[in-house]
Task: inverse folding
């Protein structure tokens, strides 16, 4: 197995893990937690699941970024090319540009979610307030959609843009 294929394989496994975890939360955990009825109990369950999954999700994101950088090398995209606006007028450049924007969006949404929830907890609050529940739901949905888009763009990159 070459380094190129190992890098791509690790990238795909991390992406599958990240998207799979998001789908599990949305399609399996949320309906089960919702049936609990008690808002405080639901908030506590989400908090516990979030704390348990956070290191795994952050690890998957870190692996995605690291292997993504490695995959750029194997796509023969030098660093200086990333700062050349002309590159983004090519099919490969456009696809990569959209993928990089998607990754940036995922990272920003992840930080927004974690900071908002940490501030709420630091103030002694719980995630029972509607605005925080809504934030958590929408950040999760947007992150999943961005993750699926970024995955599709990654597939396009592997076939030349």
Result:
């Amino acid at each position: 197995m070459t380094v190129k294929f190992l890098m791509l394989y690790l990238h795909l496994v991390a992406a599958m893990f990240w998207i799979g975890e998001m789908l599990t939360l949305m399609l399996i955990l949320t309906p089960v937690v919702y049936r609990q009825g008690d808002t405080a109990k639901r908030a506590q369950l989400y908090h516990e699941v979030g704390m348990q999954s956070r290191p795994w999700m952050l690890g998957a994101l870190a692996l995605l970024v690291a292997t993504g950088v490695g995959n750029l090398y194997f796509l023969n995209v030098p660093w200086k090319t990333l700062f050349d606006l002309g590159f983004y007028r090519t099919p490969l450049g456009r696809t990569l540009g959209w993928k990089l924007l998607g990754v940036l969006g995922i990272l920003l949404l992840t930080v927004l979610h974690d900071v908002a929830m940490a501030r709420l907890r630091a103030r002694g609050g719980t995630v029972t307030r509607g605005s925080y529940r809504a934030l958590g739901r929408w950040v999760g949905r947007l992150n999943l959609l961005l993750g699926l888009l970024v995955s599709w763009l990654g597939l396009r990159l592997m076939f030349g843009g």
Residues 3-158 form one domain. The radius of gyration is 18 Å. The chain is about 80% helix and 0% strand.
